[in-house]
Write a structure and sequence with these properties.
By secondary structure, the chain is α+β, with helices and mostly antiparallel strands. The protein is built from 9 helices and 10 strands. A 6-stranded antiparallel β-sheet has the order 7-10-1-4-8-9, with helices on both faces. The longest helix has 14 residues. The protein is globular.
Length: 255
């Protein structure tokens, strides 16, 4: 399996964790998707099949080398009522597997955070628009719209909070970056606030996925299209290691 593109940068400070931590009071009542920005190890490039599921990072102590930073979306469980009937679908749509393919660009943050919004709102978004505007406003002078640089999850979430997002239109395909970045975002497609989790236990409490809890892992959605399995599990021990290595774990309150 060829190495996929990456593109996440760790922020230069952690003020977002200090100002907007996930707490017992701010824990969402319903299943909520998560976007993570973490070190991406060489082991993660080659998922292995085990008991009918794809897995990466099976041995948290032997992950290979760090290839760079990467952002992916973690898929929650569906929302159930008291009779365990689905009242709100939160699973990824099969067509989004290929749609959210970042190709060879360092655009993972735009794709992972847009995938999170798609799970919340059941529609597609212009991931490269979010990527460009995050670069335009992050703390690095060398990251700019139209280039191939990465950015932080914090920067993308701040754009979602302050500006909103751009729902996808098929007419947008193939545009130059100046055209896409001129699109007017819809503030109603953004988020009211964001919170930041510090532990695997908090992540499970946010995702509320019985499958995750049963298997002792989290289910991630990558942005490499059909060149990578649609859903891949990562063990809890491995995710906690990544969080401890300057990982960002974002969840949002939708507008």
């Amino acid at each position: 399996m060829p190495e996929g593109a990456l593109g996440r940068r760790a922020p230069t400070d952690w003020r977002h964790y200090e100002k907007f931590p996930l707490t017992a009071e701010t824990l969402p009542d319903t299943p909520t998707p998560v976007a993570i920005g973490v070190n991406w190890y060489s082991d993660f490039d080659t998922p292995v099949e085990k008991d009918g599921h794809w897995w990466i990072g099976v041995n948290s102590k032997s992950l290979g080398k760090v290839r760079g930073g990467h952002c992916v979306c973690l898929e929650p469980g569906d929302q159930l009522n008291g009779g365990h009937e689905v009242v709100r679908h939160m699973q990824d749509d099969a067509s989004w597997w290929q749609f959210y393919d970042q190709g060879h660009e360092g655009a993972c943050v735009g794709f992972g955070c847009s995938r999170m919004m798609s799970l919340l709102n059941r529609k597609r978004y212009d991931a490269r628009w979010l990527w460009d505007w995050a670069k335009a406003t992050d703390e690095w002078a060398e990251t700019n719209p139209g280039d191939d640089q990465g950015t932080s999850v914090r920067a993308a979430c701040e754009i979602l909070r302050s500006r909103g997002h751009v729902p996808w239109d098929d007419a947008y395909a193939g545009r130059e970056y100046q055209q896409r970045d001129a699109e007017t975002p819809d503030s109603g497609e953004g988020v009211g606030t964001y919170r930041w989790a510090r532990s695997v236990e908090e992540v499970h409490a946010v995702l509320k996925s019985p499958a995750n809890d049963r298997l002792g892992g989290v289910r991630l959605l990558n942005s490499w299209g059909h060149g990578y399995p649609h859903r891949v599990f990562m063990p809890d021990e491995t995710l906690q290691r990544l969080i401890d290595e300057d990982g960002e774990v974002a969840l949002v309150t939708d507008r």
